[in-house]
TrEMBL record:
Gene expressing this chain: ispE
Catalysis: reaction(s): 4-CDP-2-C-methyl-D-erythritol + ATP = 4-CDP-2-C-methyl-D-erythritol 2-phosphate + ADP + H(+)
Enzyme Commission numbers on file: 2.7.1.148
Domain GHMP kinase N-terminal: start-end pairs: 65-151
Start and end residues of each GHMP kinase C-terminal domain: 208-263
Protein name (database record): 4-diphosphocytidyl-2-C-methyl-D-erythritol kinase
Organism name: Cobetia amphilecti
GO molecular function terms noted in the UniProt entry: 4-(cytidine 5'-diphospho)-2-C-methyl-D-erythritol kinase activity
């Protein structure tokens, strides 16, 4: 049996940096929302214990791939929680990845792939570890993984692990990838990064907010600044996460596709897509009917 599930993108509708912890990680306030657009993963159990991913992602060795890491971590956790006698007592799995989301794009593709892997294998292996345990495992893989495990649009605090549901509007978005890959540690390590925004309430954030990474990312990546300025003529353009993708909201699909048409003529070198925002992750919608 093969289980095929989506790994949707996320947007950070706003992102404020309110401090830095002793371990160097930054404290954030951010609004996460999912997009009806993303990667797709298929899982088929094997007769032996191997975990295999294909195709490989260029430049990401298998042992660093968040999909393989998530599968191995889940197997160890199942053993640690006495669900199985040994990690290799669970059948191996063939995982096929259809990669759509750009890497280092701020769309959370790697994190979303990891969350989809945790939920898919929890189901296929019959583990029922529970969402709290899966979110905690996810957090050890990356700060963005828990929101994809939980599957609801969220107001996030801490490093992104303290989540409460956020009643966001669900417009259509145009998302532009200006052709550069942003290194998240380079942004968070930058001396000029704002690290002391005042903490605000979710209600206030829902009325609009900035992305505190934007100033530094504009300086480090002129292509991102160019994309923000181009998109700003149609509304309020924002960076998602640490970039490189930028987005702008539209009332309907028609307006979004008109902007994509303009983009093709005026900036043919940029990749872009349009997709609707959603407050329940497409992963959870798919799991409910699988
Ligand atoms: C900023 C956000 C917002 O959604 O998005 P992205 O642009 O990466 O998608 C995330 O919190 C990113 O999460 P994620 O991409 O999982 O980051 P991690 O792998 O945990 O961390 C990469 C590196 O970024 C820095 N980092 C990350 C998160 C954070 N709150 N503070 C940090 O200082 C650390 O140097 C860390 O080593
Ligand atoms: N399955 C995966 N998909 C994408 N990136 C991955 C994956 N596994 C590991 N990575 C690594 O994680 C980095 C961040 O990827 P990604 O989550 O797509 O970007 P971002 O955090 O900016 O949204 C990549 O540059 C890559 O080195």
């Amino acid at each position: 049996m093969t289980l095929t599930l989506p790994a949707p993108a996320k947007l950070n509708r706003m992102l404020h940096i309110t401090g830095q912890r002793a371990d160097g990680y930054h404290e954030l306030q951010t609004l996460f929302q999912f997009l009806e657009h993303g990667d797709s993963l298929s899982f088929t159990l094997r007769d032996d214990e191997a975990i295999r991913l294909s195709p490989a992602i260029d430049g990401v060795p298998e042992e660093a791939n968040l999909i393989v890491r998530a599968a191995r971590l889940l197997r160890e956790a199942a053993h640690a929680q006495s669900k199985v006698a040994s990690p290799t007592a669970l059948p191996g799995v063939d995982i096929t990845l259809e990669k759509v989301l750009p890497m280092g794009g701020g769309l959370g593709g790697g994190s979303s792939d990891a969350a989809t892997t945790l939920l898919a294998l929890d189901r296929l292996w019959g583990l029922e570890l529970g969402e709290d345990a899966l979110a905690e495992l996810g957090l050890s893989l990356g700060a963005d993984v828990p929101v994809f495990v939980r599957g609801f649009a969220a107001w996030a605090e801490g490093i992104g692990e303290r989540l409460v549901p956020a009643p966001l509007d669900t417009p259509w978005f145009v998302v532009i990838h200006p052709g550069v890959e942003v290194a998240t540690p380079a942004v968070f390590g930058h001396p000029q990064l704002t690290r002391s925004s005042l903490a605000i309430s979710m209600a206030r954030a829902l009325q609009g907010g900035r992305n505190d990474c934007e100033v530094v990312v504009r300086t480090l990546y002129p292509a991102v600044a160019d994309a923000l300025d181009w998109l700003d003529q149609f509304g309020t353009a924002r960076l998602t996460g640490t970039g490189a993708c930028v987005f702008c909201a539209f009332d309907d699909a028609r307006q979004a596709s008109e902007v994509l048409g303009r983009l093709e003529l005026e900036r043919p070198m940029w990749h872009a897509f349009s997709a609707r925002g959603c407050n329940i992750s497409p992963l959870h919608a798919a799991l409910a009917s699988a």
